[in-house]
Write a structure and sequence with these properties.
D-Maltodextrin-Binding Protein, domain 2, 332 residues, 2 domains
């Protein structure tokens, strides 16, 4: 009899647990409203890029300045994986490249089976697509990659998405036109030092720690390959807002003695559309109010501006973010 009662009780609890999400009940928001602690996971990227230190700084300021909220930055393969983590409810906040976000919300490419219901808090800063090599490889132009061993970035990364598109825009098939490797930026630097690859793609802010490591290595002269000539083809295929021209200034990395024209793509900070308006507002607010703290961790954070944060996202903005921008008088 007792076991039967226990089974009935367990069944009732299970039914309630299943019903709560359908009723719009978020246990984290309930805990926050009743004095508990809301724990947030921030999906970032490789440790050698910008997303991870930026995300670590964001986790710190959220934890210090939003009451009863604790955030943690997680190492990931970056954009594609980050958006899938949002989709599965395994991450609350994610960094992503705008072109990957465009695929995610439209249900294309890796997201063809299920679009991601992500909403933007802010467009943070522009990413510079690096095609890195050394003078020893004699690779000077994008066409010189044909037939060479090239890393196109970690599988599941925004770098990989951009690399494939740039190669195709240059008339190079990523599957047959190069001998492709799928390495993280740290692994790519190690591989090029060891002579195992000839070049690698990396999409990140300036400067990127791993690129600084490569450029400062004894006996190696780093080179960045200019590739801004493919931008018209990219814009013809994907629209005029996703891709634009940027310049890596000379001296950014040792060995880069002249300005290098590259493909640029925006970075966005996104959340799932189910995040409460109050929480999204608080995160957006702390992002701007503690910008100096974030810039002390990585200089790319200093590029955050109210006017540019609201432009260039292929995903809709979260109502909480819109509320913040309206309060600051920049949302129209």
């Amino acid at each position: 009899m007792l076991s039967r009662i226990s089974a009935i009780f367990f069944g009732v609890l299970l039914a309630v647990a299943i019903a709560l999400p359908a009723l719009g009940f978020d246990p984290r928001e309930f805990a926050r409203a009743h004095g508990g602690v809301t724990r947030l996971s921030i999906a970032t990227g490789n440790t050698g890029g910008v997303y991870y230190p930026y995300g670590g700084g964001l986790a710190r300021v959220i934890s210090q300045h939003i009451p009863r909220v604790q955030a943690t930055a997680e190492v990931t393969a970056a954009s594609v994986d980050n958006l899938k983590l949002i989709q599965r409810g395994k991450a609350d906040i994610a960094f992503t490249l705008a072109d990957t976000l465009d695929d995610a919300v439209r249900g294309r490419g890796p997201f063809a089976r299920s679009p991601v219901h992500a909403q933007t808090l802010a467009v943070l800063y522009p990413n510079y697509v690096h095609i890195a090599t050394t003078t020893a490889t004699r690779i000077e132009h994008l066409a010189d990659l044909r037939g060479r061993v090239v890393s196109t970035g970690s599988p599941g990364s925004g770098t990989e998405v951009s690399a494939f598109r740039i190669l195709r825009a240059a008339g190079i098939d990523p599957d047959t036109g190069i001998r492709r490797q799928g390495l993280s930026v740290n692994a790519s630097v190690d591989a090029i030092k060891d002579g195992k690859i000839d070049a690698f793609f990396w999409s990140g802010g300036l400067p990127t720690a791993s690129l600084l490591d490569l450029a400062s290595s004894i006996g190696i002269t780093a080179r960045l390959v200019s590739h801004d000539d493919v931008i018209p083809a990219l814009q013809a295929s994907y629209g005029r807002t996703l891709y634009f021209r940027l310049v890596v200034p000379r001296g950014t990395y040792s060995g880069v003695t002249s300005d290098v024209g590259v493909v640029g793509v925006g970075n966005a900070l996104v959340v799932d559309e189910t995040m409460s308006e109050d929480l999204a507002f608080a995160i957006t607010k702390v992002l701007f109010e503690r910008r100096a703290d974030l810039a002390a961790i990585h200089p790319e954070a200093s590029k955050l501006r109210l006017e540019t944060a609201i432009t260039g996202s292929p995903a809709p903005f979260h109502p909480g973010a819109i509320r913040y921008y309206r309060e600051r008088g920049v949302w129209k």
